Amino acid sequence: MGLLSFYNSHFIGIQYQYRNFTSTHPTEPGESNSGTSGAEYYKTIQLWGKVNISRYIQLFAFVPYQQNTQHESGAVNNYSGLGDVSLLAGSYILKPKADKAVTHALFIAAGVKAPTGTRTVADGTTGDGLLNVQPGTGSWDALLNANYSVSYKNTGINTEASYTITTPNNAQYKYGNRLSAGWMVFHRFNKNNLSIVPQLGIRFDYTLHDYDNYERKWLNEQTGGFLSYGVASVQAYYKQIGFQASYYLPAWQNYAQGYVTAQRRADLGLLFLFK
Predict the structure, then answer these.
(1) Pairing relationship of beta strands 36-52 and 10-25 according to DSSP bridges
(2) What are phi and psi of 151, to 5 degrees?
(3) What percent of the chain has pLDDT over 90?
(4) How far apart are CA 125 and CA 172, in angstroms?
(5) Binning pLDDT at 50, 70 and 90, where does residue 11 land?
(6) For residue 173, with 0-12 CB atoms within 10 Å meaning exposed, 13-18 middle and 19 or more buried, which class applies?
(7) Residue 30: CB partners within 8 Å, gap ≥ 6?
(8) Exposure on the CB side of residue 25, measured as CA atoms within 13 A
(9) Which of 200, 158, 199, 151 is nearest to 181 (CA)?
(10) What DSSP state is assigned to residue 114?
(11) What pLDDT sits at residue 34?
(12) Angstrom distance (rounded) from CA 217 to CA 235
C-alpha cells in the first residue's frame, strides 16, 4: 500500500499489474528427456479502495481480475477470471503531524484473503496446468501489514512489510507462507494543487515451500525461495485525482531451486480521492 496508507482521504482506484517469469520443468525420475522450458505471464486488473469507517479504523478492499498465460512446449494455455478478494482493517500507531519538520508515522493492518478466485485445476496431480497460473488459490489466508514512514520536510524513507499466512485448500494443497518487504526513499514536489512524489528503493519477497498434500505433509521442494528487485516509482496528485507507476528490475533471486526466474514487473494505477 506504500504511502497511500497515510492519506486521510477515502479513495477508490484501478490498477494494472504485469509480471513475467521463465521456468524450466525438470524430468521425473526414470524419464529420459531433458525437461521442458516455458514462460508465464501474469496480468491483473484490480479495483481497490479505502474507507475510513471511524476516527481510528480504515478499511481496505482489493478485488482482482486476472489473465494468466503459460507458454510451454509450443502450447499456450490461458487462465482468466476473478481472483481472490482481500479485506484489511488498519489503524495508526503513530500518526504524522503536519506542523513538525521531522514526522514519524506507523500504520498496521490485518485482514483476510477469501477463496473467491476461479480455479480449473483442483490439485497438482492432474497434469492440466500449473497451480500458480490459476486466478484463485482456493484457500482462506490471513494477511498482516506494517508500514512505517519517517520524513524531514518533504524527503523521507518508507518501510513496509507484509506477511501472508496460508491454509490448505479443499484439495489439501497449501501454498507457502510469504513475506514481502520494501524500502523506498521519496521526495515530495508540491506546487499549488499538484504534488509529485518520485521514489527509489528495493523490494524483497521470500516464500516458503508449498505442500502438495498438507495433511500428509508432502512438501513440494521445487517451490519457494526469494526474489529481490530494484524499484523506481512515481506518484502524482492533482486535486482529487492520483496517478501511480512502478517498475521492478530483478536483482538477486533463487526461486524454486533456480527453476523459475523472475523477469519484468510493472504496475500502473489511477486513483480518485474523496472526503
Answers:
(1) antiparallel
(2) -145, 150
(3) 73
(4) 12
(5) very high
(6) buried
(7) none
(8) 14
(9) 158
(10) -
(11) 57
(12) 44
For the entire predicted model, the pTM comes to: 0.91
Please give the Cα distance from 85 to 159 (Å, whole number). Answer: 25
Q: What angle do CA 51, 56, 60 make, to 5 degrees?
A: 30
Residues 6+ apart with CB under 8 A from 133: 40, 42, 68, 69, 70, 77, 79
CA atoms within 13 A on the CB side of 161: 5
Query: CA-CA distance, 120 to 122, in Å (whole number)?
Result: 6
| Dihedral angle of Cα 198, 254, 113, 72, to the nearest 10 degrees | 100
Residues shown for the chain: 275
Which residues contact residue 239 at a Cβ distance below 8 angstroms, ignoring those fewer than 6 apart?
193
Burial class (CB in 10 A: 0-12, 13-18, 19+), 98: exposed
**Cβ-proximal residues to 234 (8 Å cutoff; 6+ apart), any chain:** 196, 197, 198, 199, 244, 245, 246
Q: At 145, phi and psi to the nearest 5?
A: -145, 140
- Let me know if 196 is exposed, middle or buried by CB neighbors in 10 A (0-12, 13-18, 19+): middle
Beta carbons of 237 and 225 less than 8 angstroms apart: no
Percentage of the chain modeled with pLDDT above 70? 92
CA angle 207/204/234 to nearest 5° reads 135
